[in-house]
Write a structure and sequence with these properties.
Chain lengths: ~250, ~350
């Protein structure tokens, strides 16, 4: 029998704690495949966020650290500056990166840190029980926007990738998704490209935003969640390259 | 050299790989010095966007096994407490210097010892300690640096150097020597890439039943070892003293002059100077209090270390406090007058 699909070595053979239909498992696989295909397993150090993916090191089989909420880009700075030969990535959710860690991500990009950021945007705080995130869509119901998010008082969805892309220190920013196979393979391509820039010593930060489903706190089926990303989320967060110096 | 520059050069001699810092008075000489000297040495200097970021850069560099440090002054150290707690939870070595200034709030840039509680009680959330060293001269400040890095590596914990604005700015001659390093444990826990070994993980989250309790007991056992092996204090003319001043840092320098003047007047005064504030020299003070004598605690605060002195003495001898908060510095004459009052009252 021919093997057509097998688990990549940097992904552990274990069950995840993620909800059914969650995008994290998929993103982990793409990340692990990218690491293995590029042959950088032995020199990669990953940073897990505070959020649903806090236990990412239980699933990704590379050296990893878990850090305070939002501080990953600062931790990555400390790692990369002292270990320029290592490949450093942070894996951050929207609460982590676009709320509490806004200063850290902006300044890491501003300083042109040579790190790679995987930014999982699911428009909600997952781990703490489905509260509003800066990326929550207008009208979206969360536990802290029971009437749906109103721009008046709760602000508009924060397009942080667009913000980052204007900084000279950000050399590659792309928004991808995982709502269909074509998007999934494009996301992997983007992650690989981001790593390649770092491997080649490109002078700046690379970031891949992934629009990712949270069926649990969107109160939708996994299939409906994928549809919602395609129909609703991409209207506010359009897919595509926001910047690529390569 | 001023204290701030001396400690910087001493840190470089001690093998500092990376310095991360954010400007704040009265310790700006350190960031300026490091920005020049670290690149000269082929080492890392980053001016961070905040103290929050600086301590997390230390966290990252330290997790890969590199020697790194940050420095700040009181308000900045408050911001670093989150990171210091995570360093404790993850058992990472780090060196942090606090050149204390007056508080609370923005306070002022005058010297102070108002951060004693914060420094000696862990400072951030959770059950943890940091080793706290309080030098009282520029030479001692410089000498503390290599010791701080070694202790941090040996015990995998944060070592805090507690200085103040006077010590940081004071110019004194100083000899900077490369000291032989004690044998240090291998950093086999460091994140260096999982090459021909299983993955290393640095973490402070422990969700499984009982796992966090276990970690806490392990930390406490480590802290007991530190208390046993690393407590330091200096005693000056304590043996026959009727009155013993307890003071640390720059205040101890002032207090020694007051002790000498008192002796000239025939008053038997002495001084105990805790060098490590945590672990606190509880035993040494307890022992000194076995004979009935007055203890006068002098601090540049409204009274913080005095609590530890009282705990050590446990009611065996009277403890009196004299303090100046918010940038006030006690003078030799002020302390001498206090000594006179207390000893006169006592002999009546
Ligand atoms: S709460 Fe949402 S993001 Fe978190 S694991 Fe469940 S589906 Fe995934």
């Amino acid at each position: 029998m021919k093997t057509v699909f097998k688990r990549t070595p940097s992904l552990k053979d274990t069950q995840t704690h993620y909800c059914p239909g969650c995008g994290h498992g998929l993103a982990h696989r793409l990340l692990a495949e990218a690491i293995d295909e590029l042959g950088i397993h032995d020199r990669t150090i990953g940073i897990a966020p505070v959020g649903c993916a806090v236990l990412a090191y239980d699933y990704l089989d590379v050296d990893m650290i878990e850090v305070a909420h939002g501080r990953a880009p600062a931790v990555a700075t400390g790692m990369k500056r002292t270990n320029p030969d290592k490949i450093i990535f942070s894996y951050q959710g929207d609460g982590d990166l676009a709320a509490i860690g806004t200063a850290e991500i902006i300044h890491a990009a501003h300083r042109a840190e040579q790190i790679t950021v995987i930014f999982i945007n699911n428009a909600v705080f997952g781990m703490t029980g489905g509260q509003m995130a800066p990326t929550t869509l207008l009208g979206q119901v969360t536990t802290t926007t029971p009437q749906g998010r109103q721009s008046n008082g709760q602000g508009f969805p924060l397009q942080i990738s667009e913000l980052l892309a204007i900084l000279p220190g950000a050399i590659y920013v792309e928004r991808c998704s995982v709502y269909n196979p074509a998007q999934i393979s494009n996301t992997k391509k983007a992650i690989k490209h981001a790593f390649e820039l770092q491997m080649n010593g490109a002078k700046g930060l690379s970031l891949v935003e992934v629009l990712s489903p949270c069926p649990t706190y969107w109160h939708m089926s996994p299939a409906r969640s994928m549809e919602w990303i395609e129909k609703e989320m991409t209207k506010v967060f359009p897919l595509g390259k926001l910047k690529d110096i390569a | 050299m001023c204290g701030n520059e001396a400690l910087s050069e001493a840190a470089i001699i001690a093998g500092l790989d990376a310095y991360f810092g954010y400007p704040i008075t009265p310790q700006n000489e350190i960031t300026a010095y490091m920005s020049r000297r670290m690149p000269e040495q082929g080492k890392v200097f980053v001016q961070s966007e905040s103290e929050l970021a600086a301590i997390n850069m230390v966290f990252g560099a330290s997790a890969t096994g590199k020697r790194s440090m940050t420095t700040s002054s009181s308000p900045g150290i408050s911001l670093m407490q989150e990171g210091i707690s995570y360093l404790a939870g993850a058992e990472l070595p780090a060196v942090v210097v606090n050149v204390m200034r007056g508080g609370p709030g923005l306070g002022n840039i005058s010297p102070s010892q108002g951060d004693y509680f914060q420094a000696t009680r862990g400072g951030g959330h959770g059950d943890y300690k940091t080793i706290v060293i309080a030098p009282s001269s520029v030479q001692e400040l410089a000498d503390s640096m290599s010791r701080a890095f070694d202790l941090a590596d040996i015990y995998r914990m944060t070592v805090l150097i507690l200085a103040d604005g006077i010590l940081g700015q004071m110019m004194e001659p100083v000899v900077l020597d490369k000291k032989p390093k004690p044998p240090l444990p291998a950093k086999d826990w460091a994140l260096t890439g999982a090459k021909q070994r299983p993955q290393n993980i640095v973490r402070s989250l422990w969700l499984k039943d009982g796992a966090l309790e276990k970690l806490n007991y392990k930390l406490q056992e480590k802290y007991r070892q530190v208390q046993k092996n690393e407590t330091r204090c200096e005693q000056y003319m304590v043996d026959d003293a009727d009155i013993v001043i307890v003071a640390y840092g720059i205040v101890a320098r002032i207090a020694i002059s007051a002790v000498n003047k008192a002796r000239q007047e025939g008053i038997k005064a002495g001084l105990i100077r805790p060098i490590t504030l945590w672990p606190f020299p509880t035993e040494q003070i307890d022992k000194a209090s076995e004979e009935l004598r007055i203890f006068l605690v002098v601090e540049m605060s409204c009274g913080q270390m005095v609590d530890d002195v009282k705990l050590a003495i446990a009611g065996k001898s009277p403890v009196v406090f004299h303090g100046r908060p918010g940038g006030g510095v006690p003078s030799v004459d002020e302390i001498l007058e206090k000594i006179r009052q207390l000893t006169v009252r006592n002999s009546v």
